[in-house]
Here is the input.
Amino acid sequence: MRSQVLLAPLYLFFLSSSFAQTTSSFDLNKYISTISISDLKTHLEIVASDEMEGRDTGTEGQKKSGVYLINTYKNNGISFPKGATDFYQKVPSAFMNGLPDSENIWAFIEGTDKPEEIVVVSAHYDHIGIIDGEIYNGADDDGSGTVALLEIAQAFQEAKNDGHGPKRSILFLHVTGEEHGLYGSSYYTENPLFPLANTISDVNIDMIGRRDEFHLKSNNYIYLIGSNFLSTDLYTICEDVNKKYINIKLDYKYNSRKDPNRFYYRSDHYNFAKHNIPSVFLFNGVHDDYHQATDEVDKIEFDALQKRTQLAFVIAWELANRKNRPVVDKSEK
Ligand SMILES: [Zn+2]
Here is the structure.
């Protein structure tokens, strides 16, 4: 999650249409359960370790964490996207206001029926580095989303190995430069590997391992932001799959373009939404360790991280497998 800044308003175009929906009936529980606390913990203890030096954009520490992500995909039998030559999308310094060259990292599971239609699952893997000698490990921001993507990809791949590959393609996108200005997602959407017109949705995960002051009694919640802004279908999908498989409280407190915190504009989904791609942002809210050196792994609530990761998985699953892509019935203004 980016610090609050004023962003210039952006205007965009476009419409898309689709038809009546049917939902595939399939018992996902076997794959939902592959998203485990132990795997999430194993990954996060590495991604948010001091060795990664706070993952500031373009630093050696960030690049090292990127290598770990890539090796994890390789170990799970998941490759980079068709049409790419490796796991990296280079984001040049000039695009990022002089920050060092950096990379988005992408992995891909090709769809069986509509491979040209793409569901993006995104999380930023950069954080804010080392400040006054202190390493800011960003375990929640956004180590949590980073490791969630690894586990979601593994769940999709295990299903595929059993003959249940997704009908549409899934692009796992670990974006860079988020903390400095959502640069990686901005670069991707200006230089997309797959046409944006065929990019049916973005499920963006940024901070899902903690709780905020409004949920001191229970971590069984997640804020959803933006799900109904462009597509009623997307809102309905999130509600339905949560009821069917996960059952956590979907909290819409921040689900407004007018919310003074402007969370809708402060993470990477917005760069998809501004192109009228239906997007949903999963977020646990802020806490005292937000953008502090104390955002550490030992404060992560792994039961919550697991459930929210599972929720993101079933949302992406439904988007990838349902008969019709979500209808865009509203527009970003
Ligand atoms: Zn942040």
Notes: Residues 1-2, 141, 179, 291 surround zinc ion (CB under 6 Å).
